[in-house]
Amino acid sequence: MALQLGDIAPDFTAPTADGEINFHEWLGESWGILFSHPADFTPVCTTELGKVAQLSAEFAARNTRVAAVSVDSSEDHRQWSQDIAETQGHEVDFPMIADPDRRVSSLYGMIHPNASDTATVRSVFVIGPDKRIKLTLTYPASTGRNFREILRVIDSLQLTAEHQVATPADWEDGDNVIITPAVSDAEAARRFPGYKTIKPYLRVTNQPGRA
User: pTM of the predicted model, to two decimals?
Assistant: First the structure.
C-alpha cells in the first residue's frame, strides 16, 4: 500500500556518500525532506541536487534537513557530487543515500513499474518532527522539481501546524491566511483581532506572528 499523509515515515539504515545514516535518528527533532532521483550522472538530477545545495541556508532556516536517494552506489554518488559542484557551482552538503538493493525505494514506493522497473521516479516526502508524512509529490523523470515551491510548502506546513489557520491559493510567506472552520467567531475575535469575514466559511486574517 502506498504511503499516505499522516503515515509514519519508514525508518531505515543505509549507506550514503559520506557514511551510514539512520534516518529517524538523523532527522532528530527537525523537519525533513527525502527526495529521490532516477539515476546518478543524469542531466535533470544534476541541476536538482545543485539547486538544493544552493538553497541549503533556506532549508536550515526552517529547521529542515534534506536527503537525496537513488538506486546507485555510494561510490557513484561521491563521483557525481564532484560533477554537481563543478557544473552547478555548489557543493553537495546533504546526504546522498545509496540504495542499490532498492530497499529504501521500496519502503517509500519510489519505483513505479509503469514508468520504470529499475529507476526511482522523482518523489518528494516532507516529514514533520513527529516523523509523520506531511506532503508527497511525484514528478516524471523528465520534469525537474521547483524547490522554491517546496520551501513555500514548508512555510505553510510549519505555520498551519502552529496556528489554526490555512493558506490560500498562491500564498507566500507574509500574505493573509484563512481561519479554519474549527475556530468559532468568538475565538477568532480573540485570537485574530481585526479579521475579515468574506463568507461565513471564509474568514481571512493577517499571518500570525507578522505585524
Answer: 0.90
